[in-house]
């Protein structure tokens, strides 16, 4: 430590590539974890731990291979570890179902990207007040009930409004992606065609 | 039964699935719901596909909005209105989205708008005007006509039970104009952005109907305005005009009741409204003006009440009498036992002020990577003796890192931390025994060997062995903005092995203000102007050639690209202050 400036070491190109992939894939990995552990606080904790493990195992990643697949494998292991510490009443899904959801998630990767692209356009089409509400709901990471309390509105009113916005977004995304499927033909991004 | 078939999800099951998913995302799914969801997902591949898509959208919103933070400034002057909560679907024209190219264009625009904070609200004191019927103080106007304006924050809670469970709040929640609080029992403190503090004692009903006051329909409150008059609404540029004769809303802090308007002319007072609407006002410090309100005649009287005195206004709004001064009836200080929610409240409060970098440092034991929660991805990596998962400012409830000897957290080269305007550094710190070395809480500096040649830092020095220094106690040492290391020294003895909240505001005129536990702790004249250069950021680094850096614990290190006010710093501190005290009466 002493005798040299610790800030001057430059990372190797492999390290730089790893970090690029790591940053690029974080959103996808977080989505994967939240799908397996739907409670936000649980997912955030496992995401954090998974990131630590991934960085610790960076040297084990083979450049040129599927980074997201590698990362999801680590995240899945961390999810299972975490579930073992959870009390039963907080657990969603049995392990068999968890495996099937996990397999399906990886299969659905390209479609999820297309859906996220479509989502941005669909959010744009929401009314300003709906956009505002959904943003309020998520920016503070509080549930509709807590948001309602903050806004001084009945919880059910806010809950129903958020439910309606989600339904609108869902329908808009499905419409947009199915239109793109028709445009590009049956062998493009739709995950159903992938092996 | 056949499973895993794409077409097996009936319309009813599909609707059921989305109902369950809404409950799941809102964390309201009970055991029965979990079983139904489990069955649906086990039986149908299509259900799993829909589930993954829905949860991925949910995750995306969490991710995007986490990056954006809360309450960012809106770039335009046009205020956003309170969201319409219409149960009817808004129009989503299918023809609007023309194709993938258009989709990418829209995506780019949306992302840019998001980065500009277009979805956010502008909090403006100029807009903190809300008129309401002072008698009943019910919400006036439609939701669409209301502006969501935050005038403060919930900074203390103790054993709160709510008259209306749907209207409960939580520690650290923003307090918007128009918000009503109905406490069945317990204590709750609201700190206004102006600095005024109100402690509500249940049972009571209170509504924030003005940026510097509120309507107490029944129950008891104590208002503390600050010894130097903080909290009286000095920043309000526009005196509100009210059509309501009972609601003149003057400049000072005001508590209205059904039969009186109690206007602060001093610093601290208590108000109690009984079931019949009679009002008592007890002046603890300074003085108040009480204006009586007769609902029938419309007449009123003005009475000045000095410290140590109390007055009662009967339900008719006319009869007044002097009553015994009884300050012990009012809670004057509220401390909230630390808990996990307090830490979450602290994190929300920090994010609301838009830090450029924010490292809670509350990762579990053995973590070597420390997440930047600001959303800017300035994550840090531990080097040397860094131990995560130690007790934090709230022992057993929050975590911190402990650094020993050569340990520090490297954030890397981050030139955005070379500020040309004012900025603020904030952290919770616990100093272990210094050993004749310096340790920096956080530094952003261009390094020349082991000395910084530009940039800034915040930390302590302990020169206990240096005969001429005259500093036998460790003290906080602040360097700022200049080329010269150690430009601003704060030579006040610094407590050891005790958590404290420190914040240093590097002002744009190169002066500095230091705060400890929310209170001013030092002020420094303008220093050498900044020398901007390549900037490396490190937490817990130091300048000692033997690698003896910060010794002690750190938590919630944050850097803001703006000058925070004392009110902001204090409201952060109060979310997570160390306390085991119960509410007390002075």
What is the strand tally of chain B? 29
Whole-number count of domains of chain A: 2
Poorly predicted regions of chain A are: 1-11, 184-195
State the separation between the terminal residues of chain A, measured CA to CA: 51 Å
**What is the third-level CATH name, the topology of the largest domain in chain A?**
Rna Polymerase Sigma Factor, Chain: A
Describe this structure in words.
The complex is a heterodimer of chains A (195) and B (586). Chain A is an all-alpha fold and 195 residues long. Chain A folds into two domains: 11-107, Rna Polymerase Sigma Factor, Chain: A (Orthogonal Bundle), CATH 1.10.1740; 110-195, Orthogonal Bundle (Arc Repressor Mutant, subunit A). Chain A has helices at residues 13-36, 40-56, 67-85, 95-107, 109-125, 128-139, 144-151, 155-184. Chain A is globular and about 50 Å long. The model of chain A is unreliable at 1-11 and 184-195 (pLDDT under 50). Chain B contains six helices and 29 strands. By secondary structure, chain B is α+β, with helices and mostly antiparallel strands.
Summary?
Chain A is an all-alpha fold. Chain A has 8 helices and no strands. In chain B, β26 and β27 form a beta hairpin.
């Amino acid at each position: 430590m002493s005798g040299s400036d610790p800030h001057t070491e430059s990372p190797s190109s492999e390290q730089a590539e790893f970090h690029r992939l790591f940053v690029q894939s974080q959103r996808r990995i977080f989505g994967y974890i939240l799908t397996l552990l739907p409670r936000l606080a649980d997912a955030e904790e496992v995401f954090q731990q998974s990131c630590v493990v991934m960085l610790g195992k960076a040297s084990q990643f083979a450049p040129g291979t599927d980074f997201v697949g590698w990362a999801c494998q680590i995240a899945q292991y961390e999810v299972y570890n975490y579930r073992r510490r959870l009390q039963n009443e907080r657990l969603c899904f049995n392990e068999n179902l968890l495996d099937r959801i996990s397999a399906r998630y990886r299969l659905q990767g390209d479609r999820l990207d297309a859906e996220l692209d479509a989502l941005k356009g669909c959010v744009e089409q929401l009314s300003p007040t709906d956009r505002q509400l959904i943003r309020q709901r998520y920016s503070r990471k509080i549930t509709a009930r807590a948001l309602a309390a903050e806004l001084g509105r009945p919880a059910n009113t806010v809950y129903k409004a958020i439910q309606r916005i989600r339904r609108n977004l869902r329908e808009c995304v499905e419409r947009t992606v199915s239109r793109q499927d028709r445009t590009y033909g049956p062998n493009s991004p739709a995950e159903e065609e992938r092996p | 039964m056949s499973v895993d078939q794409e077409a097996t999800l009936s319309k009813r099951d599909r609707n059921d699935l989305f109902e369950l998913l809404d409950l799941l995302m809102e964390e309201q799914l009970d055991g029965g719901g979990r079983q139904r969801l489990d069955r649906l997902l086990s039986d149908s591949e299509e259900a799993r596909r829909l589930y993954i898509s829905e949860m991925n959208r949910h995750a995306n919103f969490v991710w995007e909005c986490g990056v954006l933070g809360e309450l960012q400034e809106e770039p335009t002057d046009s205020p956003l209105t309170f969201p319409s909560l219409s149960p009817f679907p808004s129009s989503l024209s299918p023809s609007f989205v023309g194709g993938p190219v258009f989709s990418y264009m829209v995506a780019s625009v949306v992302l840019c708008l998001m980065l500009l904070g277009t979805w956010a609200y502008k909090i403006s004191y100029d807009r903190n005007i809300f008129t309401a019927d002072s008698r009943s103080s019910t919400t006036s106007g439609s939701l669409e006509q209301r502006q969501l304006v935050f005038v403060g924050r919930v900074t203390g809670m103790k054993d709160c039970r709510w008259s209306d469970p749907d209207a409960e709040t939580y520690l650290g929640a923003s307090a918007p104009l128009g918000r009503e609080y109905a406490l069945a029992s317990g204590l709750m403190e609201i700190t206004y952005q102006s600095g005024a503090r109100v402690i509500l004692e249940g049972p009571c009903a209170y509504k924030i109907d003005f940026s510097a006051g509120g309507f107490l329909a029944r129950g008891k409150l104590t208002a503390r305005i600050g010894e130097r008059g903080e909290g009286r609404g000095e920043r309000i540029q526009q005196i509100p005009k009210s059509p309501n004769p009972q609601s003149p809303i003057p400049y000072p802090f005001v508590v209205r009741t059904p039969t009186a308007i109690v206007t602060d002319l001093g610093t601290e007072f208590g108000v109690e409204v009984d079931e019949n609407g009679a009002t008592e006002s007890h002046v603890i410090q300074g003085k108040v003006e009480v204006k009586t309100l007769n609902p029938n005649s419309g007449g009123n009287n003005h009475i000045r009440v000095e410290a140590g005195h109390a007055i009662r206004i009967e339900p008719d709004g006319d009869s007044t009498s002097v009553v015994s001064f009884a300050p012990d009836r009012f809670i004057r200080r509220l401390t909230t036992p630390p808990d996990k929610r307090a830490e979450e409240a602290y994190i929300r409060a920090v994010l609301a002020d838009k830090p450029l970098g924010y490292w809670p440092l509350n990762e579990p034991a053995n973590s070597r990577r420390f997440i930047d929660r600001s959303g800017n991805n300035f994550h840090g990596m531990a080097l040397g003796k860094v131990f995560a998962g130690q007790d934090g400012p709230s022992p057993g409830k929050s975590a911190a890192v402990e650094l020993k000897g050569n340990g520090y957290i490297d954030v890397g080269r981050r030139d955005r931390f070379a500020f040309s305007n004012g900025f603020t550094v904030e952290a919770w710190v616990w100093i272990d025994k210094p050993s004749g070395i310096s340790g920096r809480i956080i530094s952003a500096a261009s390094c020349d060997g082991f000395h910084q040649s530009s940039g800034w830092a915040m930390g302590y020095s302990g020169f206990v062995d240096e005969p001429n220094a005259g500093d036998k106690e460790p003290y906080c040492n602040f360097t700022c903005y200049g080329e010269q290391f150690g430009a601003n020294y704060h030579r006040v003895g610094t407590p050891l092995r005790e958590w404290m909240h420190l914040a240093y505001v590097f002002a744009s005129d190169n002066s500095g203000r230091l705060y400890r536990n929310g209170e001013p702790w030092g002020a420094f004249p303008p220093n050498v102007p900044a020398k901007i250069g390549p900037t490396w950021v490190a937490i817990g680094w130091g300048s000692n050639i033997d690698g003896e850096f910060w010794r002690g614990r750190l938590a919630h290190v944050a850097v803001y690209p703006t000058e925070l006010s004392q009110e902001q710093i204090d409201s952060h501190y109060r979310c997570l202050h160390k306390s085991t005290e119960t509410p007390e009466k002075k």
